[in-house]
Amino acid sequence: MELSKVYAEQKEHMEKCISALKRDFMTIRSGKVAISILDNIHVDYYGTPTALNQVATVLASDATTISITPWEKKMLREIEKAIMQANIGVNPNNDGESVKLFFPPMTSEQRKESAKQAKIMGDKAKVAARNVRKDANDQVKKLEKDKLITEDQSKKAQDEVQKITDATVAKIDDLVKDKEAELLKI
Fold first, then answer.
1. What CATH number corresponds to the domain at position 145?
2. CA dihedral 130, 136, 139, 143 (to 10 degrees)
C-alpha cells in the first residue's frame, strides 16, 4: 500500500463522516417541519419492522403538519402506535383515512435544545474524523516500520493526514454553525 492510497482512503472515510452528520441533521426539527423527522420510525408490517415510508405516503402539507396515508387501512393503528412509541413530541390524530401530526410552532427553548443537539452531533462527527486520522496514521507508521517509506516520508505523510483531518473538522464546524443559525432563526 502506498501513501496515495492511504490519503484516498482517509478522504473517502472523512466524506462518510460528513454525510452521516448531514443525515443526522435531517432528524432535528427546525422551524419548518420535515418528513425526515419520521425516518427512524418503523411499523410492524405483518410481523416485520418496516420503515414508515414503505407502508404509507408521507407528506408535509404545510409548515406545521405532516399527513401519513397508509396504503392499507388496517395499518392506521400500527402507524399510530409506532409514532406514539417514537416520542417525537406530537400525538398522532387518526381520522379513519390517514394519520395527521400537528407540530406546534417551536418555542425559543426548543430551538436552543435543537441547536444543542446539532452541536452534539457535530462533536460526534469530529470524533469519527479523528478516528479516521488515527487509522491513517497507523497505516503510515506500518509502512515506515515495514521499511516501505523513510522516516522523513512518514513525517510528511502524517502532516498530510493532519491537513486532511483539519479540513474535515473545519467543514464540520461550518455545517454545525449553519445548522445552529438555521435553528435559532425565527
1. 1.10.132.20
2. -130
**CA-to-CA distance for 178 and 171, rounded, in angstroms?**
11
pLDDT at 34: 78
Residues 6+ apart with CB under 8 A from 92: 68, 79, 80, 83, 84, 99, 100, 101
Q: What are the cell numbers at 113?
A: 435544545
For residue 186, what pLDDT is reported? Answer: 65
Q: Which of 85, 102, 119 is the last residue of a domain?
A: 102
User: Nine-digit cell at 146?
Assistant: 515495514
Q: What are phi and psi of 48, to 5 degrees?
A: -115, 125
Instruction: Provide the residue range defining the domain that includes 14.
Output: 3-27+107-184
Q: What backbone phi and psi angles, to 5 degrees, belong to 95?
A: -105, 15
In this structure, the answer to whether residues 96 and 77 fall within a common structural domain is yes
Q: Are 77 and 55 in contact (CB under 8 A)?
A: no
The answer to whether 149 and 143 are in contact (CB under 8 A) is yes
pLDDT < 70 regions, the chain: 1, 186
Are 46 and 98 part of one and the same domain?
A: yes
